[in-house]
Amino acid sequence: MYTSNDFECLFIRYQAESVPADESLQAFCIRNGVPYNLFHKWYKDTRHKVISVRLDGVPPEVPASSASEVSSSVAEPVDSVNYLGEQIEEHFREVREGIKIETVRELKYLGTIGGIKFVDAFYNDTVLVMNSDLFTNIDYEDFYLHFCQHSADMSVAAVPYVVKVPYGVFSLDGLNIKGVVEKPTYSYYANAGIYLIKKHCLDLIPKDEFFNATDFMDRLISIHHKVTHYPISGFWIDIGQHNELARAKEMAKHLKSL
């Protein structure tokens, strides 16, 4: 009996192994002894939902990627820029798809969250911060509800990351071998670069200093603030590398065809 988490791990493997090799989902299932009909149903149910997201002042028919209907609004989207900032500012100079995105300029690179200090004002008690080089259909409504339900000060979206070791791994006690695990598979959760943060916590970010989101997590944890993780059940690709960008474009073509 396969669980949703089993299929999630299989999907990560499918993305990593099969998509670059142009292997079909069916061929992947056959190769791994996975029931294609079950995996395909899970894949369609959880990976291929494109819905409308309403932004303040934006008509509701503007399309965006998510996993379910989003009823809440996103106000005042802002992009902090540094490298190639002029090109990004030029790109966002005009309203695109009915959305106006403001930009703020970092005079020096301030890490993954340090640039947030250049934003003049936040209009909600909860602030969504995310890396710009992501392709994902994270369910933002569910992310926010999870954040509220667990009374978090910061919630970090997380993606499952599977490591397969192709050899036998020793369990050691000094020089003595206590056991052997043959070709183990280890599952972890990795930082997806998407965060929900209580606005008052942003005061803990230093001004005009290099500061990563991971530094911010450590600071919150050190003063006993609540930092939780939210497992992403949809797809997630870091498009900061050319090969990953190409893969995301191919996936986008597939999504449009559904």
Low-confidence stretches: 48-73
Side by side, the strands of the main sheet go 5-10-7-11
Q: Output the radius of gyration.
A: 21 Å
Structural class: alpha+beta
What is the element string, with H for helices and E for strands?
HHHEEEHEEEHEEEEHEEH
Q: Whole-number average pLDDT? A: 80
- How is the biggest beta sheet arranged? 4 strands, mixed
Quickly count the helices: 7
Q: Oligomeric state of the chains?
A: single chain
Strand proportion, as a percent range, falls in: 25-35%
Principal-axis shape: globular
End-to-end gap: 28 Å
Name the helicity range: 25-40%
Number of DSSP strand runs = 12
Task: Give a written overview of the molecule.
The protein is α+β, with helices and mostly antiparallel strands and 258 residues long. Helix content is 30%, strand content 26%. It has 7 helices and 12 strands. The strands form 5 sheets. It has a 4-stranded mixed beta sheet. Strand 3, helix 4 and strand 4 form a beta-alpha-beta unit. The longest helix has 15 residues. It is globular, with a radius of gyration of 21 Å. 18% of the residues are buried. About 10% of the residues have low confidence.
